[in-house]
Records
---
Amino acid sequence: MIEFHLDARSGMAPYQQVVQQVRHALRLGLLVVGDQLPTVKEAATSLTINPNTVSKAYKELELLGLVAARPGIGIFVTATLSNDSLAAHGPLRQSLQRWVTQARRAGLDDESIDALYKECLRSSAAEDVA
Amino acid sequence: MTAVIEANGLGKRYGHKWALSECTLAIPDGKVVGLVGPNGAGKTTLLHLSVGLLQPSAGSISVLGGRPGTTATQLARVGFVAQDTPTRAGFSIADHLRFGRWMNPNFDAKLAEERIESLGLDLRQKAGKLSGGQRAQLALTLAMAKRPELLVLDEPVASLDPLARREFLQGVIAVVADSGTSVILSSHLVADLERVCDYLVVVVNSRVQVAGEIDELLASHHRLTGPRHERAALPRDQQLVNESHTDRQSTIVVRTNDPILDPAWTVEQLDLEDLVLAYMTGAAAQDRRPKLGVHS
């Protein structure tokens, strides 16, 4: 079971945040096929939000084909977003970690690291297009 | 869709002063309604009219299709928690539940006892010895146990600390999730209601300024900033909510369902707090303006 949280400053509607957190958990393998999501009541009370907001998020996940409701029992995960690339996460993470350490040593602060990373992401996306 | 609360030209007058005037509303079933406005705006008057504690001086109001407070069945269908969640200091919690059972034929004593237990309260405790949050929970428990179709809560969390406030709202959410009860709750703070409500009514200066589904309200209101504009220059589909001007710049809040085409404006989305504030300051400004210049 996962627990939701809300970020009031994200600028994202609460129902979208719930959708995104489920997708995120699916991508990271925290949720797998057959897992149960919190009931609407559980999720609504723990987040202190309107139950309709949770229902709306669950409906959207259902439309995306990621979960299905079994009436009277609950909402279950029916698909996954993680793929084989998950296995590659470990080594990639390690090398990224090493790179971050190097960057810090070179005197870069978090903001510069973030900017550099995003710049690389952008230029590699541009290469792909070209 | 049936309306939980339907008001037509509803008004309440005390002497020469109208506490609420020209109130026309149709609140759909199954909503959690936030009634927001500054102190003294007319929120309590509207709530008291909807439970039958007050009779209208003008217009009409119907609640769940009936006239508020007129019959025993009508009374049983509405749960009401008055401001400051009143309880009897000398009565124990058990006394309160017993009293609730006497007064309400459909009183769900089991639900009430289970809820008191889950809150960690002792039935023998005197209400006078409870904390503000516990007293509020007791009042909510009594109102819930009536199994009402509509729950009316007047400023339920105003005097509570943040934790008690959250626990109280969680109680309200549990009722909504369990039985689909409609709820209307008032507050002078938007932040209290923002996450819990899906329908909003803003009352300022004894008038309803805006009412609607929160999602729709957020999608249709925009803040525009740009070089100084005169109000006459606004397209007809844009309803002006609030404006402020410097000698060079204008900042206005408009309501429209159409896209804003004028390239001179920078368009921003509003959050709920900004939206309510725009109506409050807009209404206050309209009051100050000389009567001849009032723009309707």
Note: Chain B touches chain A at residues 32, 166, 169-170, 173-174, 176-178, 195-198, 215 (CB under 8 Å).
---
Amino acid sequence: MSRWFAVSASREIPRGHIAHTQLLGQELAVWRSASGELNAWENRCPHRGVRLTIGSCVGEELRCQYHAWRFASGSGQCTYIPAHPTQKPAATIRARAFPVREDGTFAWVNLAPEAAAAPPPDPGIARALRSMFVQAPVAELRAVLLGGYGQGSVTATDEYTLLGEPDLEFMLQPVSDRQAIVHARLRGHREGAERLAELRHHNALLSAVRDRAEAAA
Amino acid sequence: MITLYDYELSGNCYKVRLLLKMLQVPFTTRALDFHPAREHKSDWFLKLNPLGQLPVIDDDGLLLRDAQAILVYIASRYDDSGVWYPRQDAAALGRISQWLGFADSLTATAGAARLHDTLLQAADIVACRARAHSLLRILDEHLWFAEQEAAGWLCPAEHPSIADLACFPYVMLSEEGGISRLPYPAVRRWGDRVKRLPGFIPMSGIFPAPAA
């Protein structure tokens, strides 16, 4: 499916971190190099198939935990094979990299190999709320949200994007047939105690959404 | 010198080794054959710990059982800086004790699921996994807000406490008991932070995370 999905708030993937997520059944290692470049790779080493999420980020490379093969940020190209230290790894040995983009708040992934269309436009200054993992199908989660959020109503922009009031945007990540994540952001900027209270408030509302979706599933 | 009665694959023994290494306290180990010989249930060991559980330490004649109790003792006795277990801070001690209890719950759920899957020990595996997930859900939410409001440790201080080390092993080993941590991204970042602490040592199933 050639579509962009939000998979994480950008700030939740700090430099040197390998996040573990899944999109439409595809397991992903979403990691940020020391210089800040973001990658979304199939969570599978092309050598022996172990999860790259048990590996580690070393500078501009991800190093597999199993045989310490290293793969370059950006291309996924294998750069070093410890068992053959003097040989340049073949160009065909590379981690499978998916298109990944960031706007001001979120990291977006497209599972289509050559994603032609651009991701949704950057809404400008926005603040990410705590994403909520839900043990229910994405359709269940969507239905609960469309039933209302807090005191406000919710409308759908498309199958995976919903708008709440005021200035609230929900982005749904289908994890598997039975699991989904709701990411959310508010437009504008807020700081300090006011921001923390807002995060707590929305975390409680999104927890209630999750509980309803899980009860219905 | 401390003698640690130890089993290399035990998360509860590992957390004691971890604190001793981080504090650079010298110790020796006496390895027990936990599986398959069940040496922790042998007559000689039951004299040291009638509960038949690891770990136990012997510090020049002071015999202590229970991983969490041992962490409290080692930090109180050997951490001159007082950051791992701030003895003068009543609120911190209360919070730490709360998470030490949580660590016991992790052992009884995620730890039991792992023993079921790896060493074929009897357990209600469905209940263990479900309860472990409910604990991890609580932990993830707590740690997400700990990142927003403080330094991202279990208790709000600049430095981690023994609470972090107490909870760390059976969280990080959960997948050996069939408990995926995919739904818990804040737990994953906290795991990275623990792994990057000075003196960190890995164990089988817990991999290092070099500084980025």
Note: The mean pLDDT of chain B is 97.
